[in-house]
Amino acid sequence: MDTQVVIIGGGPSGLLLSQVLNRAGIATVVLERSSRAHVLSRIRAGVLEWGSVELLREAGIGARMDAQGLPHDGTYLTDGDRMVHIDFKALTGRRVMIYGQTEVTEDLYAAQDAMGTTVLHGVEDVVIEDLDAAQASVSFTVEGARRTLTCAYVAGCDGFHGVSRKTIPEAKRQEFERVYPFGWLGILSRTPPVHDELIYANSEHGFALASMRNPNLVRYYVQVPLSDKVEDWSDDRFWTEFKRRIPAQAAAALVTGPSIEKSIAPLRSFVSEPLRWGRLLLLGDAAHIVPPTGAKGLNLAFSDVHYASEALIAALTHGSTAGIDGYSARALQRIWKAMRFSWQMTTMLHQFEGEDSFAAQMRRATLAHLADSETAQKDLAENYIGLPY
Ligand code: APR
Ligand code: PHB
């Protein structure tokens, strides 16, 4: 065998898996299509569940996160000017960490460099074969040359558009999907956050989210129709729209400034089952997508890494393959619960085009109930801070 585990994709799932496996003495090769600079230029989520925080610490990459991350004890959900505080700390005893996916990825690359693991960039035309044989094989082109690696297992960490999921025969895959009729327009701006915690805002003008990366860098979003283009949104237009969607009290404190990044992302819920096919395991966005409303995308990728790494270490260090056999069912249990939460948060906070007046009342009533019921708050908090592994 050329290596023990070939990992396809060098995003957060692939890099964290490589990190955890190498620390356990397992040899890996990561195959990434893009350059490192490109992977690091993608602006993604920014909220880590405490389970993710602990996983990163255990993987030896917690130092910068602990120094620079912002622990948050709660968040706000709002209906017009009504602000409902969800106090994670009081309700669950736990909290979340604000630390950007870009920073996590940078820390992972630095740790991989320090350990001297193999991460190949510019890899094209990946073909996965022999998943039901004694050894799997992965062929690919890098720097113009075709190469093949044999291995015990293949980890598909290549995101929603990757090749790994599609290697499972279509007839053996079941896909579940919901596409939402709107997107999120997001901006990054070097300004101080409008509030000390995140604000998920439901308003008569649509949804907005006030998030942050650090005390002088904000990430703000507004819900937009899918037909909108980034070019339609000048900074001025963004600030005007954002300001009227957040509560007046927060709007009064809003500091605006030039955007340093602006993009539109569609919202989708997606799960492909099973997560394991012979010697192939799927992790992260390769197997599932959540709408960003519950901040679950990166955290779900990390719980997959937890389950998959346990299974791979048991198989490759003491020949016990029960974990591999159980991986799909074990990971899917948690995935479906996060799917439900992300869908519920999305439904509770967004305006759906063409909706009737009843739908808006249901959103208002859900938030009113949340404001008055500690039981409802506890349910939200328990899901937001992350269900146990
Ligand atoms: N060959 C090699 N690499 C590939 C291929 C391929 N055919 N297809 C995709 N890739 C690479 C992409 O370039 C990307 O760097 O796989 C990586 C997948 O990374 P992500 O899409 O970030 O997926 P994942 O690592 O599972 O991260 C989970 O959490 O916040 C969410 O969606 C967000 O990216 C985030 C995710
Ligand atoms: C972000 O900071 O980008 C972010 C935070 C919370 C979410 C989604 C995105 O729910």
What can you see in these coordinates?
- The chain is of the alpha+beta class.
- It is 38% helix and 29% strand.
- The protein is built from 13 helices and 20 strands.
- Strands 6-5-14-15-16-13-17-20 form an 8-stranded mixed beta sheet. A 6-stranded mixed beta sheet has the order 8-2-1-12-19-18.
- A hairpin with a 6-residue loop joins strand 9 (124-129) and strand 10.
- Helix 1 runs parallel beside helix 6 (101-115) and helix 10 (297-318) packs antiparallel against helix 11.
- The two termini are 32 Å apart.
- P-hydroxybenzoic acid binds at residues 45-47, 198, 209, 211, 219, 292-295.
The ligands found in this model are: adenosine-5-diphosphoribose, P-hydroxybenzoic acid
Oligomer: single chain
Report the sheet with the most strands, covering strand number, pairing sense and barrel closure.
8 strands, mixed
Count of extended strands: 20
- Overall average pLDDT: 97
Task: Give start-end ranges of low-pLDDT stretches.
Answer: none
Report how far apart the termini are: 32 Å
Secondary-structure-derived class: alpha+beta
Helix content: 25-40%
Please tell me how large the radius of gyration is: 21 Å
